[in-house]
Amino acid sequence: MTALLPGPLTLTLALPLLGALLLAVLPGWRPAAWLNVGFSAATLAAAAWLAVDHPPPGLFLFIDDFNAALIVLTGLVGFSTALFSAAYINRDGKNKRLAPRHLRLYHAMYQAFMFTLLLALSANNIGILWVAVEGATLTTVLMVSLYRTKPAIEAAWKYFILCSVGIGLALFGTILVYLAAQTVMGDGSPAMAFSLMTPRAAAFQPELLNLAFVFLLVGYGTKAGLVPLHAWLPDAHAEGPTPISAVLSGLLLNVAFYVLLRYKRLLAANPHTLQPGPLLVGLGVLSVLVAAFMLYRRGDIKRLFAYSSIEHMGLLAVAFGTGGALANFAGLLHMLMHSLVKSAIFFVVGLASQAAGSQRIADIRGLTTSAPLLGWSLVVGVLAIAGLPPFGVFTSEFLLLNALVPRAPWLGLLLLGLLLLAFAALVLRLHGLAFGPPSPLPGRDGAKPPRLFTRVVGTAPIFLHMALAVAAGIALPAAAASWLWAIAKQLG
Amino acid sequence: MAHAPFAYNLAHLIGATVLMMGFGLLYQRRMTAVIRTYALQAMALALAAAWQAAIQDAPHLYATALIILLFKGMAVPAALQWLVRRLGIHRTVETALGIGPTLMAGVGLVALSIVLVIPMDIAGTAITRESVALAMSVVLLGLLMMITRRNAVTQVVGFMSLENGLLLAAVGAHGMPLVVELSIAFSVLVAMALFGIFFFRIRERFDSLELSYLETSRGDSQ
User: Fold this and answer.
1) Do A127 and B206 touch (CB under 8 A)?
2) Mutate to test the interface with A, among B64, B140, B195, B217 (most CBs of A within 10 A)
3) Least confident of A477-481, B1-5, B125-129
4) Residue contact A359–B117, C-beta within 8 A
5) Whole-angstrom Cα distance, residue A385 to residue A400?
6) A59 touches chain B (CB under 8 A)
7) Interface pTM (ipTM) of the complex?
8) Does A9 fall in a domain?
9) What is the CB neighbour count within 10 angstroms for residue A16?
10) A45 is a domain residue
11) Is B161 within the bounds of a domain?
């Protein structure tokens, strides 16, 4: 049981769990926010250690290059969101939008959520993986319903029911995978471990695997927000606290996608099963299509960017569905870039809607005049997510089209058209938000301006994420590129 | 197949009882009857788990059977009966699709599972084709119930009956680890759903088909 010795993996999982327990019992929400930051920073450090020092695979947990990269990303976005949240949620506490016990619940659930994500990423056993994804659903449902308004409760309920059904179906798929594996590998835990199943998957019963994959695709695809299983996503993003929107988009969707890719690899190891690629490409194109059109009629700023997340999950599905090292590389890079840029956008949006006292796009106008820092950050963020150079999203989308066009020219052309459509929608909305006559900012007028320290803490994560996205767009470090390339080749 | 055919025939008979209760859930028109049918389904499932424990010689499945019997067969139905009386919604079940068409759709789903699963060549695996087909039918019927009922409580009952299908597959899978843990993890979801209904007085389901919901809280009109 190497997993039980104190090592980077144990620390990565134990720190957020400990944080959740501690924050659940500690009264007082002001120190809680900073304790949350502290635990997240320690988790990030442990994750970074894990990336350079992979422990040997166990029956229940294992680390390879693929999940190590995502664990580091999760640690990073978790840390910067905790930092942003300390500035954001304390304001909700000060102006009594949230009661102290709700804040305590929020901080405990934030750490519990990080724990479930990290557990899901490092799980080798498909049962533990399922429990971790279920836990991620439960913790986020509690956070989405935090404001206790009618729309928040409705959004949380819808999210809860749709994703519960999704993970229920995923459990059925999980059981079917065990049944397919059990014939070859015998009873017990080895028949549920990815690292042991994948090398022997060629002998598994292919029809059972096919049936399992359909259930898994619908189940985990619901959590990844793929159209037509996306109905929960915009509401959950819009009605919860903004730091949660940032981690939902930046981390949870990635984890759901990661799970699908693990199963895709399992299926790919068996020559007689169906090809999961075309299914993923189909769902992906549909997601990009629906999201690109839905972007036009959004009146709520957080829903706007939630639909943009659906679009980008669709792009990921197309990239990984196309397969091959280049498309996988583009998909991986896109996953990282989308997490960084989208969470940064949600940070800006959170500060802007807090200042404007509204999430309606009509109420937030001319930000570059009334709040230049936020306004210009929003401009940069939207241009980055829309896929303009020099940001990393451009690089990944460009590589994706490069990989797609020689294999399926018409699909590449269609995707390019949809990308332009989504780009135009975002720029259209951005114009009103950032330029023109400014709308009043009631959240700022009257209230005394926040301390410089709070302002720095609230905006530093935005710059950090944007700087990383620009760095990846201009010159991806050779080490990072070769790391991603190695993973991309593994994914097949 | 180390066991006598009798063991499997009885397992299939119990599984078929669970499935019949799934149909029962679809044609009940009164809330209290729906909950009672659900309790019966859970008890049949507990019996299935206990029988699997006996024929697989797997004592941990007795624990699963006991949990199912106490939690899903007794505690949850009792809580639901109390809840619907508290919320004053014990009269009739509101349907989005009539009882007749729903039953037809249910028959179609069972046929679909049979068509998909029975031709599979899985002799020698840990489970029989019939068990997979039965479990999948129960799962799909639960899903159908969630889609065709308007009320939040009936929707949760549909969810729990879907879960019964999952457990039927899990206990039938020979030597599957973590069955107890998974069933407990799933119970947490159920408990949370009941908690949500009680504390937030959720009566209607909210989904993209519900017109009144779209009007009130899309929050998206420009």
Assistant:
1) no
2) B217
3) B1-5
4) no
5) 15
6) no
7) 0.87
8) yes
9) 27
10) yes
11) yes
